Amino acid sequence: MNSCLPRALTVLLLLSGSSLAMADATLAIGEPWIREAPPTARVMAGYLALTNAGDTPVTVTSISSPDFEAAEIHRTVVKEGVARMLPVTQLDIPANSQLKLEPGGLHLMLFEPQRPLLEGATVTLTIHRSNGSNVTVTAPVIRKTGGEDHSHHHH
Amino acid sequence: MSTDNKQSRFNRVLAGVIIAVLATSAGIWAARAVLERQSAMNELDATRFPAPREIQPFKLIDHNNAVFDNNALKQHWSFLFFGYTHCPDVCPTTLSVLNSVAQQLQDLDEDIRFIFVSVDPERDTPEQLARFVTYFNGDFIGVTGTPEGIEQLTKPLGILHMRVAAAEGASAYLVDHTASVLLFDPDGRYHAVFGAPLSADAVVSDFRKMLKAYQ
Hints:
By secondary structure, chain A is mainly beta. Helices cover 13% and strands 50% of the residues of chain A.
């Protein structure tokens, strides 16, 4: 009986074909947030963590949002002191690993917000994978101006 | 008589020994203070110039349309960061870190100013800068000017900046730029530089050490 189970699973896997294999590579989106921009900005930055809990690599080809005119994935690279923003065409997340988009590194470039996006607002982000599937998440707009960690320093 | 002589010679020798011991320990103490100060300087995250550098004359304007030239860097410490207001990641991140630095240094009885110099003067008017810098901290100062004026300041400091097209082909463009934070001392001289990415804790602890060494 015990030896039958793995065999039955294998058969099931083979029968169900690619759809089951696809579901193996689960992509979870964690801690999505959009940096509240100063009142001058027409471009905002977004961050999130992509976790691939599956046994096969996951490729993200693009991210879109109805709340912006356009969205791109960029990487800030500091080389010899100079910060450059390079467009990234795809994100590869190896099996059982996490890729973080965070300030000063990989980030979403969100062009031309379609409405005022102040702290408290939320934004819809859709993550598009190379296998054609999508994951949609809601990201809060958060004000981060550096005083957050030192609120006890009131003088 | 002879015992008195012996006694006074002994006293003189004793005094000599005491002076020698005192001098040596004073020497050791002084040397140790110097070494400690030096090793504190060696442990810096920042690059501190052994001899602070004078900078060439420049003339710009601040976000209140007041003249901002070499004199605006004197009589107080200044942290300078170069960027542009359309910058979505590096500039807001750095200004947030600098705001955290400003708050952590509030206990010092020092006039410390934080200055954001635009490398995109075409789009960054004083009004635009005023709204941008004060979003992070009401005391931050935004500086802009003519492209030539910006060059006068940035070129000798080795601050690089170049325009690149935003990938979507719209009228918007990005500016690659040096992301280091420069520290100027109260003599208006270029004192030290902090490389990117900036850590608030490292800047705070380095600044305290450099302030001590400067006084």
